[in-house]
Amino acid sequence: MSGVIVTNPPKADAKDVESLSGHGVATVHEALGRTGLLGPDLRPIQQGVRVCGSAVTVLSWPGDNLMIHAAVEQCGEGDLLVVTTTSPSTDGMFGELFATALQRRGVRGLVTNAGVRDTEELREMGFPVWARAVSSQGTVKATGGSVNVPVAIGGQTVRPGDVILADDDGVMCVPRERSARAVEASAARTAKEEASRAAFAKGELGLDRYGLRDTLARLGVEYRTYEEYAREEAGS
């Protein structure tokens, strides 16, 4: 496998990245029409952490972390490393030493659909990680791959410079050219949710707030008292 290391790819506007960091993954996902999630397999090794950054992408051979070493040089302040492999792998390709180097360069975290290790140390040093697996299985540094090329994770394409947002609910990607629109839509979604939260706290039902009673009626869903339902069931 030959490869390429692309330098200085375009990135989303830094102000948009910072604005999106104020919203949760679920909110941004909904605001963008339920798009962008990188699948349910990527889970955090920590809890209560949200990060948002510009993607530096890595395409590696399974069980080989050579290209992560190459990617470190391409990372800078505000970036978030996104690592995938050419075929499924759960080997522990990333650990404390990589995180130390990346943290020094201002990288905000790691997302990988492969494996990680040294999870206790990663939590202690405050370097957030979302991964498909946790594994002590070691790796080699023997095969070429690519850095800062489009990669696919969970059926989504992640390009260098796209916005990656991750929290306890998972990971999503916002295309860099849609970052401003994502900020606007997410702010509107957040305002809507805040209004609904206040209404629910006062006792209003979602059935009424969202007009769902008409939906139930249109779908033929009917109300029955327990006695009515029991008689109908007994006669069936």
Polypeptide structure, described:
- A hairpin with a 2-residue loop joins strand 8 and strand 9.
- This protein has 9 helices and 11 strands.
- The N and C termini lie far apart (66 Å).
- It is of the alpha/beta class.
- The radius of gyration is 22 Å and the shape is elongated.
Could you list the spans in which at least 5 consecutive residues all have pLDDT below 50?
none
In round numbers, the mean pLDDT is: 97
Shape: elongated
Instruction: Give the number of helices.
Output: 9
Largest sheet: 9 strands, mixed
Structural class computed from helices and strand pairing: alpha/beta
How many β-strand runs? 11
Strand content: 15-25%
String of helices and strands: HHEEHEEHEHEEEEEEHHHH
C-alpha termini separation: 66 Å
Percentage of residues assigned to helices: 25-40%
What is the C-alpha radius of gyration, as a whole number of Å? 22 Å
Question: What layout of secondary structure does this protein have?
Answer:
Layout: H1 14-20, H2 25-31, E1 43-44, E2 51-60, H3 66-72, E3 79-85, E4 92-94, H4 96-104, E5 110-116, H5 119-124, E6 129-134, E7 146-147, E8 151-153, E9 156-158, E10 163-167, E11 170-174, H6 179-201, H7 206-209, H8 212-218, H9 226-235
Parallel strand pairs: 2-3, 3-5, 4-5, 5-6
Antiparallel strand pairs: 1-6, 2-7, 2-10, 8-9, 10-11
Tag the structure with descriptive keywords.
236 residues; 9-stranded mixed β-sheet; two-stranded antiparallel sheet; 9 helices; 22% strand
